[in-house]
Design brief:
The chain is built from seven helices and no strands. It has helices spanning 14-70, 76-91, 97-111, 115-123, 127-159, 162-166, 187-190. Helix 1 runs antiparallel to helix 5.
Length: 195
């Protein structure tokens, strides 16, 4: 009977085996840190995009409000209130923007608090389009703000992790801030148009 020849196994010295395991662990840690830094970067990019969309919706709402206020469709008192609030919202510095936008929301609720005011606007020539455009702008602001604040919340949660802080994975990116404002739309404009 012939015996099968076994290849001799070569045992690595314990030092080399330990170094290999350390290298594998370092590579795994490096991959995790790289993945986390990439995720944080994507969240910051998402915040920037959401903030740009929010700014666009706020600008659109203020512009439509100013347009409606200067169109002669509303009574003079309502026109002045809306124009001043919209102008203040468009011209506000970044530190005062949340307050100015909240004041515009309050002015819109004061003027369009009842359906009768919206119906009066719709009866005037060109009023139907203006009311629909304002209603659309007013409905989009809360959605854009929610998307922005959700992205901020996710980035904040990730930035609170110890590994992100210890290894400074956020780099020099500023800590993300939520956009807090009163964005409750007027009841008469919040309802979607029928048909």
């Amino acid at each position: 009977m012939l015996r099968a020849a076994h290849a001799p196994t070569v045992a690595l010295p314990p030092v080399i085996e330990t170094l290999i395991w350390i290298a594998v662990a370092l590579v795994a840690i490096g991959m995790y840190l790289s993945w986390t830094a990439g995720r944080l970067d994507r969240l910051h990019t998402r915040i920037d995009a959401a903030r740009a969309a929010l700014d666009a919706q706020l600008l659109r709402r203020a512009s439509v409000t100013q347009e409606l206020a200067t169109s002669g469709v509303l009574d003079p008192a309502a026109s002045i209130v809306l124009y001043e609030a919209a102008h203040a919202a468009r011209q506000a510095e970044e530190e005062q923007r949340e307050v100015a936008e909240s004041e515009l929301s309050a002015a819109l609720r004061a003027v369009f608090g009842e359906t009768a005011q919206v119906e009066a606007v719709k009866e005037i020539p060109g009023g139907q389009e203006a009311a629909l455009e304002l209603a659309a702008a007013v409905r989009r602001v809360p959605m854009a703000r929610r998307f922005h604040n959700d992205a901020v919340r996710a980035a904040r949660a990730l930035r609170r992790h110890r590994t992100v802080r210890w290894f400074r994975l956020a780099g020099h990116a500023p800590f993300p801030l939520a956009f807090e404002m009163d964005d409750e739309p007027p009841v008469a404009l919040a309802d979607r148009p029928a048909g």
